[in-house]
Amino acid sequence: MAEGAAFLIVDVQVDFCPGGSLAVPGGDTIIPVINRYIELFRKKGIPVFASRDWHPVVTSHFVQYGGLWPPHCVQGSEGARFHPLLRLPADVTVVSKGMDPDKDDYSAFHAVTEQGEPLPEKLRELGIARLYLCGLATDYCVRASALEGVKQGLAVTVLKDAVKGVNLKPGDSSRALKEIVKAGGELADLAEIEEKFRA
């Protein structure tokens, strides 16, 4: 069951949680269940990846330079740090995205490791065929990452109890999850994953 699988935590950073510059409502409430997933997947020997926005100070992603969003997750800033309650394992692979000032890079599949290796290459190198995915925000980076994963031929499972959305328009998050399922992705919660691992 665990062979060929990886766990990807998308953008659980200070700026995307309450008190941050681009807070997802209740963004920090999913952290306890993410920590339980981390524990479960590590016991199964499943590698853990954590993506982060890692923006330059000047980027077309930010509103003052023509983008949609206020400044957030600027490289090296407090807001760009992973949330302090997130218990990432010592051997987590951190991948960074949004470094190109001309690109939004919502998808974690545009991220690179600290050695500069693109995430898709790293997953192929490890023989990953199934990706469990959670994090922030459902209707942006989680959605884009899940859809890209499906497009690249991975079996993608979004952990629906460990995602939260922005919902600029009411219902954006539920529409995103429906879109992921329509594209070929799956949804599951902790009880279902635990049951699968017991089987």
Helix content: 25-40%
Order of helices and strands: EHEEEHEHEHEH
Figure out the total of helices.
Answer: 5
What is the mean predicted local confidence, pLDDT? 96
Main pleated-sheet profile? 7 strands, mixed
The strand order across the widest sheet is 4-3-2-1-5-6-7
Number of domains: 1
Structural class, by secondary structure, is alpha/beta
CATH topology: Rossmann fold
Poorly predicted regions are none
Per CATH, the superfamily is: Isochorismatase-like
Number of strands: 7
Q: Please state roughly what percent of the residues sit in beta strands, choosing from under 5%, 5-15%, 15-25%, 25-35%, 35-45% or over 45%.
A: 15-25%
Overall description:
Helix 3 packs parallel to helix 4. The protein has a 7-stranded mixed sheet, with helices on both faces. It is of the alpha/beta class. The N and C termini lie close together (9 Å). It has one domain: 3-Layer(aba) Sandwich (Rossmann fold). The chain contains 5 helices and 7 strands.
Provide keyphrases for this structure.
Rossmann fold; 199 residues; alpha/beta; seven-stranded mixed β-sheet
